[in-house]
Write a structure and sequence with these properties.
about 375 residues; alpha/beta; eight-stranded parallel sheet; four-stranded antiparallel sheet; 13 helices
Length: about 375
């Protein structure tokens, strides 16, 4: 199997409501999609989410990175696909979202060539997973209304975005807990929005108030390792690292220095499935639990991440909820959502049959 054509496209998907965190506000999914075609007639897809404030990857930089990868791998044979996956990671410094898109497409292609779903190629398991859903930072009454809506839709775990104001964050979390009752799981994500003192004060208030929070995600700045450790060492709630962990080297530091209790793995941070497997295996070997996350991205990337996680027992939280946020799903096949359950296709590869609304920006043909 040889790659004979590579196209790069833009994909914009409107959201039902604005997505608001301590880092940004947006009303659309903004993806870059790579499409690979082969001499055997197979077509594969990969996607990259543009999140400059988190990964540093803009649409322009992703397109540029994919063009470099297209130049390198057009004409490549899939007979030695692991060499390609490794080469993707060392072909560019940073540009992780672009590398992730190409990595996903290669995985899709290999599984299609074998005639099996990607999730089976990656280890099997049940072709479905329960996901949590996210409550954006807004007025308390709006957040409470969102929480009640999501519970009525069948979600059993809520992720509360905080980090804009410590005092108001305590009110937000307590109000949502009071509204949904004690049986619903709640996690919080500050998206780097607190300092260490505020984080520990908020955690103390939640514990004293018996609010029952499962964990706190990325309380301080991604680069502030000293205060991340300080919070983790003095917190009465588990601390998970997200923006502090991109690749395997970051994971080594988090684990060896005891900076966090858990790690959030995202394909856009790690540069794809190939690298994410290394992070997961390292964390698991050190008995560090993982969270499976994503950026605000299309169902293409969600299908890839879901395929990765369904056979992995050391993932405690599954945050693949952008599919709940979009007005319409332009992707036929891949993943479907029923209540809080994300189900994978049994078709080969990612199982994606068609994508509406693609705007091709570049094509290279062998």
């Amino acid at each position: 199997m040889q790659i004979t054509e590579i196209s790069i496209a833009k994909l914009q998907i409107p959201l039902i409501r604005p997505f608001i965190t301590a880092l940004r506000r947006t009303e659309h999914v903004e993806d870059i999609v790579v499409i690979l075609k082969t001499d055997t007639g197979h077509i594969a897809y990969g996607s990259a989410a543009s999140t400059p404030v988190i990964t540093g990857d803009s649409q322009e930089s992703i397109i540029g990175g994919l063009q470099l990868l297209a130049n390198k791998f057009l004409g490549a044979s899939l007979d030695s696909y692991e060499n390609i996956l490794r080469e993707i990671n060392i072909s560019l410094v940073n540009n992780n979202a672009a590398k992730a898109a190409f990595d996903i497409a290669i995985h899709d292609l290999v599984a299609k060539g074998m005639g099996i779903p990607l999730y089976k190629f990656l280890g099997g398991g049940k072709a479905e997973v329960k996901i949590l859903t996210t409550i954006s930072v807004k007025d308390v009454s709006e957040m409470v209304a969102d929480a009640r809506l999501f519970i009525s839709q069948g979600f059993e775990t809520l992720k509360i975005k905080v980090g804009l104001n410590p005092y108001e964050d305590i009110i937000r979390i307590k109000s949502i807990r009071d509204a949904v009752g004690g049986e619903i799981n709640i996690v919080t994500d500050a998206n780097q929005g607190w300092d260490a003192k505020s984080a520990l004060n908020i955690i103390e208030q939640l514990v004293l108030g018996k609010v029952n929070i499962a964990m706190v995600e990325q309380p301080v700045k991604a680069w502030d390792y000293a205060n991340l450790k300080y919070v983790r060492d003095n917190s009465k709630l588990p601390i998970y690292a997200d923006e502090s962990v991109f690749g395997i080297r970051d994971a080594v530091r988090i684990i060896s220095e005891g900076l966090a209790d858990g790690i959030n793995i995202k394909l856009m941070k790690s540069a794809g499935i190939y690298a994410a497997r290394g992070i997961y295996d390292l964390a698991t070997s050190h008995n560090i639990p993982c969270m499976a996350g994503c950026m605000l991205e299309s169902p293409i990337g969600l299908a890839a991440m879901a395929s990765f996680i369904v056979s992995r027992a050391n993932i405690r939280f599954v945050d693949l909820d952008p599919i709940t946020m979009i007005k319409t799903n332009p992707v036929t096949g891949g993943v479907t959502l029923n209540g809080a359950t994300l189900s994978l296709s049994e078709s080969p590869g990612l199982g994606i049959e068609h994508i509406d609304g693609l705007q091709i920006v570049a094509t290279r043909v062998l």
